[in-house]
Each structure stands twice: as structure tokens, then as C-alpha cells.
Amino acid sequence: MYYYWDVTRNNYYKQLYVDNEQYDGYLRDGCVFKEDINIYDKIAATIRYMNGVQVSYSLTTYSPYEGYRIAFNGTEGRMEAWIQESKPVSDVNYDEIVLFKNFSRRQYIQIPFGTSGHGGGDKLLQDQIFIPGTPDPYQQCAGVRDGALSCLVGIAARQSIQSGLPVKIEGMTTLKPEVIKKYERIL
Fold it and tell me: Does the CA dihedral 92-94-100-106 come out positive or negative?
């Protein structure tokens, strides 16, 4: 089975991507299954942070829809969501978070779809970058250091896959462990 999408059949995407390839070199209509593509089609990683938080991560790059499922387990219960970015499997116009508090009934929290891509996140991110003073009431914006450490997690996962051994982030940076720990997100 082949996955094929002709980007030139949509005038908006053609103008946005194809007409600008000469400037940015980004080929939107490249086939991910070509021999020269070196990304993993499937990946799973187990991450353990210095503060004891553990993460299980799984990725499939060729799913029939774009989105993610995420769950957080904690001492007071569990929170989970299934966020459907494209080609949703239901006809609702919201994403849903399910909150399971210990010894309580489930709580369903409906989040209306945003008006821009990635659940409304694209516009929020663009505002944060291009409009000075845009408020961040939930303190969700990552800084440069957060981004760099996040990239190191991905690089470490790739190195671990290639070597078959665990990889420590602290061996990949000159930042001292206490500095890295300072910037970890506590879940």
C-alpha cells in the first residue's frame, strides 16, 4: 500500500509550500518511505528524569490520523486525553480530557477545537513569538533551555536505539546535573 498526497492539488498548500521551496528548501510532498529518509517509522522510548518522573513514549509516523493519547498517573489519580489533530475518528467538535480522582467518579472535561492548527496551539504559539507581552497565564511557554533539553531527549533516544544501551543526558551537555534538574518540569 502506498501513501500519496499531491500537495499541488490544493491551491492554498501549493502557494504556501511548493511555491516557496526555492527559498526554504522544505519539500512538503516528499515520500517518507523513500530509501534516503532516515527517520524511524515507529519508536518507543522509556525516559526516567532525575526527579523520579518516568515517561513511556511511543510514536507511529504513518498513522491514518494525526494526534496523540496522553496519560498522567499521580498520587491523587489519573488524567488522560485523546487529542485528534486531523481526520478525527468521531464527529464531535471538541477534545476530551478524562479526570479520574482516586475514589471518586470520573470527570469529563470537553475542550472545544481551536481556530488554528494543532488544537488552536499554532495561533497561541505565533502570538507568543511575534506579539510582545502576550500573556502566558498558565506558564506553558518553554524557554530556549527547555527546548535544548527536549532536543537532547530525542538525541539520547536515537543514540540508545543505535547502541541498545541507556543514554544519560548529563553526558551530552556541559550543564551540571543540578542546573538540568532546575529546569525539569515536575508533573
Answer: negative
pLDDT of 1: 41
Query: What is the Cα Rg of the chain in Å?
Result: 20
Asked if 113 and 95 touch (Cβ cutoff 8 Å), the reply is yes
Q: How is residue 51 written as a grid cell?
A: 526527579
For 91, counting Cβ atoms within 10 Å of its Cβ (0-12 exposed, 13-18 middle, 19+ buried), the class is: exposed
Render pLDDT for 93-108 as a digit per residue (tens, 0 to 9): 888 899 999 999 999 9
Strand partners, 187: none
User: What is d(CA 46, CA 37) in angstroms, rounded to the nearest whole number?
Assistant: 24
Q: Is the pTM of this model over 0.90?
A: no
Backbone phi, psi, residue 46, to 5°: -115, 125
Question: How far apart are the two ends of the chain, measured CA to CA in Å?
Answer: 41
Task: For residue range 18-42, list pLDDT tens digits in order.
Answer: 999 899 888 776 666 677 777 788 8
3-state secondary structure labels for all residues of 75-137: CCEEEEEEEEEECCCCCCCEEEEEEEECCCCEEEEEEECCCCCHHHHHHHHHHHHHCCCCCCC
